Amino acid sequence: MPDTKALYTKMEKTVLDGDIDAAAELADESLNQGLDPLEVINKGYLIGLQKVGDLWEKGELFLPEMVQGAEAMKAAMAKLQPALLAKKESVKTLGKVVIGTVHGDIHEIGKSIVGTLLSANGFEVVDLGADTPNEDFINKAKEIDADIIGLSALLTTTMPEQKAIVELIKKEGLADKIKVIVGGAPVSQSWSDEIGANGYAEDAVAAVNLCKSLMGT
To answer: Which of 139, 106, 135, 111 is nearest to 125 (CA)?
Structure first.
């Protein structure tokens, strides 16, 4: 019987170390052992990504190290995604989500965790990255016929971009069709209410639950 706990610890370490090759190799190893890809993500790589985020927020990690950790996570996801999709091929996608960090804000880690967890839970996710122009959210949502737009802002100075995008969606007449959720360290439920968003999530797990709720599942 393989020692899955030790394997998960190694996966966590590859993300903390930003070791892209090792992250991918361990993902392959987990698939060869027949492990559940969702469990591998949640108990291995995601723990590492959350620790990277915590260290970044405490100022103990610098931007290049944080990016490297996210890249290691992406390398693992590239291996695990086909297995996740194969498991879900008989299940209807829960919904389509466009996610990104708003214009003027380069913080990616929290948004990446949310995107990863949404994908793992059955949503089709398009991640626009950081410092995303407002129109790009709208254009991509129209292009893929998205159900939800997720807006991350980690700076108080970029929070108004969330409000601007909500207003842009209303102006385009898309408010009945596209739901908007907001998140990020300075963001709160009262801010979400104030700008007319459809919901606020304080962390990645809450974001998944919120999206499921908005999709009626």
So the answer is: 111
Report the CATH fold assignment for 4-88: 1.10.1240
Contacts of 214 (CB under 8 A, 6+ apart): 95, 147, 148, 179, 181, 198, 199
CATH number of 95-214: 3.40.50.280
Show me where the domains of the chain are located.
Answer: 4-88, 95-214
217 residues of the chain, pLDDT tens digit each:
468 999 999 999 999 999 999 999 999 999 999 998 888 988 999 889 888 878 877 889 887 888 888 889 889 988 988 887 777 655 568 999 999 999 999 888 788 888 888 887 789 999 999 999 999 999 999 999 999 999 999 999 999 999 999 999 999 999 999 999 999 989 999 999 999 999 999 888 789 999 999 999 7
